[in-house]
Amino acid sequence: MKKLITIAIAVFFAGLTTCRAADFVSPVSARLVSKERKPLALQSRWQKNTLDPITTRNGMNCFVYGHSNPTIIVTPYKVADLELQPGEVINSMVLGDNARWYAEIVFSGSGDISTSHVVFKALDSGLTTTAVITTDRRVYHINLKSDRSKHMLYTGFIYPQDHIAITKAAREKEIKEKEKRTTPDGFDITNLNFDYEISGNAGWRPLQVFDNGVKTYIKLPKLQEMPMFMVKTAAGKGLVNCRVKNNCFIVDRIFDQGYLILGVGKDKEELTLTRLEAKK
């Protein structure tokens, strides 16, 4: 008799451990009108169009946040690690079935690089539930399923919006740095060559002489009369294509030696501009 009672008790508890959550609730379904069924249909359509997860080199199964409906598969009495974004702080967590599922918040790292992890464990196979995790940055909706042999050890997320924000911030930083390097005339000073030597006798001198690898710029002080510009040629001195804008000669080429000539005869003033690279 005792043996029969023992067997009956064992069968009873074995049945309890294999019960599904649905076995504990009423079989009566809710009556839904068309407007109430519409969100369910839209949700189902969205789930069918979500992006597939990828696996990283360290074995993490990564879901695309906001574009996926993550499901974590857990083998009973094994732990599954869900890693959140570094620096993200968990505010709260709710498990749909906290009788047969266990969840604990743990951390890796420290300080600003501390990373929150949620560790899930199932007490039996064939269980399904959901979890909601709220943080200081976002909300996670997680599906949980338990299986006798299948197990997802390590899970995390890819955050496309953060990548977009990082790229945008990097681009804005690049633009600001370029603005710092750019003169009011639109020149990037890192690409300019200022290695010119100025010699000769004149009561005035160029404020700047530089080139950008294509054209040469000669900035002059305000003069009552603009000098003439010539370059050294095989025959001596010759004219070259150039124009004047805001007291600046813009020469349409790079030259080894150029000349600024103002006046004639005894009033003649002449300066020689020599590109130092040409002297090497």
From TrEMBL:
Pfam families: CagX. The keyword Signal applies. Keywords: Signal. InterPro entries: Conjugal_tfr_TrbG/VirB9/CagX (IPR010258), TrbG_Ti (IPR014142), VirB9/CagX/TrbG_C (IPR033645), VirB9/CagX/TrbG_C_sf (IPR038161). Residues 1-21 form the signal peptide. Belongs to the TrbG/VirB9 family. This is P-type conjugative transfer protein TrbG. The lineage of its organism: Bacteria, Pseudomonadati, Thermodesulfobacteriota, Desulfobacteria, Desulfobacterales.
